[in-house]
Amino acid sequence: MATVLSIQNLTKHFGKIKAVNGLNLEVQTGQVFGMLGPNGSGKTTTLGMLMGVTNPTSGSFYWFGEEPTPQLRRKIGAVLEHPIFYPYLSGQRNLELNAMIKQCPQENIPHVLELVELTERKDDKYKTYSLGMKQRLAIASALLNDPTVLILDEPTNGLDPMGIAEIREIIRKIAASGKTIILASHLLDEVQKVCTHFAILKRGNMVHTGPIGDVGAGAETVEVNAEVENLNEVLLGFSGTASVNRENGVYQVTMRDGFHGKDLNRFLFDKNIVATHLVTRKKSLEKQFLEILAESH
User: Fold this and answer.
1) Residue range 274-284: mean pLDDT, rounded
2) Is residue 215's pLDDT more than 70?
3) pTM over 0.70
4) What is the CATH number of the domain that holds 254?
5) Shortest CA distance to 76 belongs to which of 152, 130, 136, 177?
6) Please, are residues 26 and 7 in contact by the beta-carbon 8 Å criterion?
């Protein structure tokens, strides 16, 4: 896979504040890369440096193996701050003006409107759009020059659950078309559902990076219940049990490495116990995220 973005020791200080501190990162072609971290962790500052909005204090980064130039940045679409659209103009007209500014063909407009599902509302004034529609128009605008990479800073900020789901679907569609996406978010759920890889930032430092697939690689937890009085003792008698907790009327069994829910089920069955409830839960990104933040104090 080709490297789209390579970051080496990228650092940004605002006076005494170390907003970004020696960041090293690589993003490959076709990845949906999530930069995850609480507010103030350095995500927006990093994206600002990558787009040339703010200059690094030190360190370097390369787009497509080259030093950044205005020409090279034309291959990158970004939705950083709230984009400026004219409230009394239609979505279509706003995109036409943006296409003129970006010097890209007007013929791209129907395609991007279709992609963000705004074709039916293209002739309505921008001021009549919901927050979710405004965000979708911003994404459409960022896609006008058919960029290779799309950068999104907190794309679902302030949206209701339906708006969040719509943006998520659009991100998946854009990724499926072969574009590389870099998105910053403080929402774990968002990153887990749309990203292929992620990095966790905390106070300007990267504390973890890896594929989303690694998220569930921790210990398995199995929720189990059965109509038997001494279930707690039975579960503790299983060689794969690391610990047992009772929560919300079910037993949470943390498994030792190499043991799975099916092993526990077989163990119970051999004891003539039929589980009325048995669900395997991987360690969620949320748990891992909180653990990483706790560990990195």
Assistant:
1) 81
2) no
3) yes
4) 3.30.70.100
5) 152
6) yes
